[in-house]
Amino acid sequence: MTTSIKKVVLAYSGGLDTSIILKWLQDEYHCEVVTFTADVGQGEELEPARVKAQNFGIKEIYIMDLREEFVRDFVFPMMRANTVYEGEYLLGTSIARPLIAKYMIEVANQTNADAISHGATGKGNDQVRFELGAYALKPDVKIIAPWREWDLTSREKLLTYAEKHGIPVEMKRGTQSPYSMDANLLHISYEGGILEDPWFEPDDSMWRMSVSPEKAPDKPAILELEFVKGDIVSIDGKSMTPAEVLTYLNQVAGEHGVGRLDLVENRYVGMKSRGCYETPGGTVILKAHRAMESLTLDREIAHLKDDLMPRYASLIYNGYWWSPERKLLQQLIDASQVNVNGVVKVKLYKGNVIIAGRKSVNDSLFDTSIATFEDDAGAYDQKDAEGFIKLNALRMRIAAKLGRKFD
Predict the structure, then answer these.
(1) How far is residue 230's CA from residue 93's CA, in Å, rounded to a whole number?
(2) Nearest to 119 by CA among 130, 107, 111, 132
């Protein structure tokens, strides 16, 4: 443990873990602590975090509303790539970490801090995401990760430490959530506790953003989503900011049971973990965006994006948002979105997102005169298909004549 740290910026939620870390930093490093609290739409009152920090004698307290930036500069760019990790996960936790890392470094620079600190454990992905982001933005930054240093390795030890140092413990014992939760404007995740058994089905009372599909209304909600360059800019004709779009879709989709996921995933640190996720608005955006692209994207560009998406998703999941390769991929993705303009009609019904229509006045590549099963008046010569098929079959016909078998 180094003793050269004079000031450290702590990513501070005001909860038990980061409150203990705050006190531990003061005692172990004998340094000044600056707290940074990010509002990324977790739906909690953040002013209590200011009061708690003041009670610890903290003089420099930063609480920032980052909701618009979060959706505009992180969620929407990710959605333009149709990003899902391991075929299902919409990366709600992953995509918030580079934004938090960015502002931890900005606050460190503003306050001339020597180091930053976070509350991520030594078993999870978040330590990787925070620290890779921090190093990318400030190569020589010092990082203090208490969970990799201290001996407070159990809940009981944490509670004992809190009691010894007069740290308030809200929702103590029986009333606290049995899950480890992370919330932002894109999702809520639930991990730990009884969820560590992959066979256990969570109680319906666990979910906070959505009703169960069984309890969803019998009448569907129908929305018209307008896209400009791959981003939703209005709903039912009403212009909205990125954060307003996601907030509204979360509400409506959640009311119709959309966006629940129960997943066993492969963490970057090597283990498998089971998590449950609620991403109502993001689920709608992903489905609608693909529908808009189906009308406006060239076939090979669409297929190239699908080829690149798993790599792009892994970069975000593993913490490489600020890497040169992610930035390069983003330029390609954004260039593909120039003509992704139009309106998608979606129907939300009992957990499902159903595409009910799509149109693009100026950018649609769908040509009715060619695609029709009726008389196309010579727009497409069906005889051309014969040569096309024979040329594509040539290599297989040659192999067959030689008697080659591949089964």
Answers:
(1) 22
(2) 130
Strands 342-349 and 221-228: antiparallel
Q: Evaluate whether 21 touches 10 at the Cβ level (below 8 Å).
A: yes
Whole-angstrom Cα distance, residue 218 to residue 156? 46
CA 142, 145, 148, 149 torsion: positive or negative? positive
Q: Are strands 32-39 and 61-65 parallel, antiparallel or unpaired?
A: parallel
CA dihedral in degrees (84, 87, 92, 98; nearest 10)? -50
pTM for this model (two decimals): 0.94
Closest Cα to residue 202, out of 50, 193, 210? 193
CA distances from 288 to 23, 55, 231, 332 (A): 47, 47, 10, 21
How are beta strands 231-235 and 238-239 bridged, if at all?
antiparallel
Taking alpha carbons only, the member of 310, 312, 307, 305 closest to residue 326 is 312
Residue 147: how many other CB atoms lie within 10 Å: 17
Q: Do residues 188 and 261 lie in contact, with contact meaning Cβ atoms separated by under 8 Å? A: no
Strands (E), 80-125: 115-117
Burial 181-196 (b: 16+ CB within 10 A, else e): ebbbbbbbbbbeeebe
Residues 144, 8: Cα–Cα separation, whole Å: 8
**312-340: per-residue pLDDT in tens?**
999 999 999 999 999 999 999 999 999 99
Partners of residue 346 on adjacent β-strands: 223, 355
Question: Which residues participate in catalysis according to the annotation?
Answer: 17, 97, 126, 180
What domains appear along the chain, each with residue ranges and CATH number?
Answer: 7-69+91-176 (3.40.50.620), 181-297+339-359 (3.90.1260.10), 371-401 (no CATH)
Are 340 and 350 spatial neighbours (Cβ–Cβ below 8 Å)?
no
Q: Considering the chain, what is the average pLDDT of its residues?
A: 94
In angstroms, the CA 259 to CA 65 distance is: 25
Structure tokens given for 150: 């201290």
Q: Name every residue whose Cβ is closer than 8 Å to that of residue 108 and which is 6 or more positions away in sequence.
A: 9, 34, 115, 116, 138, 141
49 in Cβ contact with 12 (< 8 Å): yes
Instruction: Provide the pLDDT for residue 174.
Output: 45
Q: Which residue has the higher pLDDT, 174 or 228?
A: 228
> Does the pLDDT of residue 3 top 90, yes or no?
no
